[in-house]
Design brief:
The chain contains two helices and two strands, in the order ββαα. By secondary structure, it is mostly helical. β1 and β2 form a beta hairpin. It is rod-shaped and about 115 Å long. GO terms for molecular function: structural constituent of ribosome. This is 60S ribosomal protein L34-B. It comes from Wickerhamomyces pijperi.
Length: 124
């Protein structure tokens, strides 16, 4: 029958944060080795896919790693994926184009109104 091991920390319950792995030491004794939780990959804020190029760590560990592990060198580097950034750029461009088209159409309509007023005055 396998030897029993006991927890080495004060928490005596089998919770998510208190997982152990049984390890045999060089002296031949079985010990409980506490296992840390693995970090999840950061997700894109728009579409929800895992961000490539950003390391997956526990939240507190991000404070100890360099900036290159937390972001990619692009606008919205550590929070949005490349496709969503591209979509935002295209959307902003199209909105600006739409504003320009509206302005041009408004100017044309005003010119036509002025031309009609001139034509109606010259007939009288």
């Amino acid at each position: 029958m396998a030897d029993r091991v006991t927890y080495r920390r004060r928490n005596p319950y089998n919770t998510k944060s208190n997982k152990i792995k049984v390890v045999k030491t060089p002296g031949g004794v079985l010990r409980a080795q506490h296992v840390k939780k693995i970090g999840t990959r950061p997700k894109c804020g728009d579409c929800g896919i895992a961000l490539p190029g950003v390391s997956s760590l526990r939240p507190r560990q991000y404070a100890n790693v360099s900036k290159t592990h937390k972001t990619v060198s692009r606008a919205y580097g550590g929070s949005r994926c490349a496709n969503c950034v591209k979509e935002r750029v295209v959307r902003a461009f199209l909105i600006e184009e739409q504003k320009i088209v509206k302005r041009v159409l408004k100017e044309q309509a005003e010119k036509e109104k002025k031309a009609e007023k001139k034509a109606s005055k010259s007939k009288k």
